[in-house]
Amino acid sequence: MWLFILAELSVFALLILAFAVTQALKPQLFAASRQLLDTSTGLAMTLSLLSAGLLAALAQQRVRQARPGQAALLLLLALLVACGYLGLKLGEYRHLLSLGLGLEYNTFFTLYWILTGFHFLHVLLGMLILAWLAEGCRRRRYGPGNCSGFESGVLYWHMVDLVWVVLFPLVYLLG
Amino acid sequence: MLASRFLLGCWLALAVLSLATVGLAQGAVSSGAVLVLAVLKAWLITDGFMELRHGPWRWRALLLAWAGVLALVVGISLNLRG
């Protein structure tokens, strides 16, 4: 799992570096385009992802304590909180598209859509994994002696959080 | 119980740092401070949520370096621009 996470982080690193380098080449364009993004929405998405991460980590503790029922409940809560991110992100995408700020509008938005869209797909996959883990807990598939698969799934979600804490200031705040 | 409190502490610190990140970015503070907060958040996720503080040091170093190096390069690119 760690190798997979490292591979994913490497891909994100390349995209983030591409964004940073292009920003250095076109600072005015990036500063003007960034004004069209809502910082408070970005902050709310951050809190949503981190809260889901907390709930997933707490669920992992419950599995280790042989309390899979509580773990399933915590994972369902994590999914609910993550839905907040989904709603906010889809709302932001819809708003930007209604303004004509699509993938081809300018270089900033090309990179914005690629970077945040790629991350969005990872969040979707992470939510599917959390749902799978919740179902596994409900069926009592995980326990103190059998939780490595569970830990790998939760690790994936934390990787999504890790990427976002770097991505958020770069796309929404800096410059 | 202790582990849960530790996780709650990490989450609280992450939430405060996220708010501070936005506050600093909207003020007249340099982008370097915002990037330092991003690295601190990455450290909390890596050591707290991912539990790498108890894990193999190589993986811990790699993940911490991932955020640190990216923040450094982003900071340099912002200064080159200026």
Features:
heterodimer, A: 175 residues, mainly alpha, Four Helix Bundle (Hemerythrin (Met), subunit A), 6 helices, 0% strand, B: 82 residues, flat
Structure overview:
The complex is a heterodimer of chains A (175) and B (82). Chain A has 175 residues and is mainly alpha-helical. Chain A has one domain (2-18, 41-173): Four Helix Bundle (Hemerythrin (Met), subunit A) (Up-down Bundle). Chain A has six helices and no strands. In chain A, helix 4 packs antiparallel against helix 5. The relative contact order of chain A is 0.18. The model of chain A has no long low-confidence stretch (mean pLDDT 95). Chain B is built from three helices and no strands. Chain B is flat and about 45 Å long. With 82 residues, chain B is mainly alpha-helical. In chain B, helix 1 runs antiparallel to helix 2 and helix 2 (31-49) packs antiparallel against helix 3 (57-81). The mean pLDDT of chain B is 91. In chain B, 84% of the residues lie in helices and 0% in strands. The longest helix of chain B has 25 residues, at 2-26. Chain B has one domain (2-81). The A-B interface holds A 2, 5-6, 9, 13, 16-17, 20-21, 23-25, 27, 39-40, 42-43, 46-47, 50-51, 53-54, 56-58, 61, 155, 158, 161-162, 165-166, 168-170, 173-175 and B 3-4, 7-8, 10-11, 14-15, 18-19, 21-22, 25-26, 31, 34-35, 37-38, 41-42, 45-46, 48-50, 59, 62-63, 66-67, 69-71, 73-74, 77-78, 80-82.
